[in-house]
Specification:
Elements: H1 2-15, H2 27-38, H3 43-57, H4 63-77, H5 81-94, H6 99-111, H7 115-128, H8 133-145, H9 149-162
Helix pairs in contact: 2-3, 4-5, 4-6, 5-6, 6-7, 6-8, 7-8, 8-9
Protein name: Tetratricopeptide repeat protein
Keywords: Repeat, Signal, TPR repeat
Organism: Thalassococcus lentus
Length: about 180
């Protein structure tokens, strides 16, 4: 009995980081939305679908994490990048398995032109959610800003495979030996 309780505690500690539950699994809804993006008839339809993706990604695991996310985004929207970063730092500390915390913190770093700081957060967001188109396009833009155009083009292609309607599609250039 003691061994079972101990094993349960170990399992629970991996599912909950500092009290934060695992983020909701939206895989079926995401699968459907990504499929719809592939057959979207134009920018307007794709924008509606993309907004639905963002609604899912922006659903934090619990109320405290949602509050941190919302506060950070409000601070970022009002150009208070220091306070935004503090909120996203708190969110990542509380929910280290929630991709959007890293993605939002990377966005603040990008806006502050701290590209070297943004890249590890984008990589972590993509480890947690490999189909996060926002993190993929953000990584491509970050790499472009760092002068790593070839790497940026490769990541941009990954984003466009998921969402061929991204506004960043106009940044697509041929890779060496490739025609567009």
């Amino acid at each position: 009995m003691k061994i079972t309780a101990f094993a349960l505690c170990l399992t629970a500690s991996t599912a909950f980081a500092d009290g934060c539950p695992v983020a909701p699994d939206h895989t079926p809804a995401l699968d459907k939305l990504f499929a719809e993006l592939q057959v979207a008839s134009g920018d307007m339809e794709a924008r509606v679908i993309s907004n639905q993706l963002w609604e899912l990604w922006l659903e934090a695991p619990d109320e405290p994490s949602q509050t941190m996310l919302d506060q950070g985004m409000r601070h970022r929207s009002s150009f208070d990048y220091i306070a935004a970063k503090e909120r996203f730092d708190a969110l990542v500390g509380y929910c280290p398995f929630y991709a959007e915390g890293y993605n939002q913190r990377a966005f603040v770093s990008f806006l502050r032109e701290e590209f070297e700081q943004a890249l590890p957060d984008l990589d972590r967001a993509l480890e947690l959610n490999p189909r996060h188109v926002g993190a993929l396009s953000g990584k491509a833009l970050t790499l472009f800003q760092m002068g790593r155009d070839l790497d940026g083009q490769i990541v941009l292609r990954q984003a466009l495979e998921l969402n061929p309607w991204l506004g960043e599609r106009f940044l697509l250039k041929p890779l060496p030996g490739e025609e567009l």
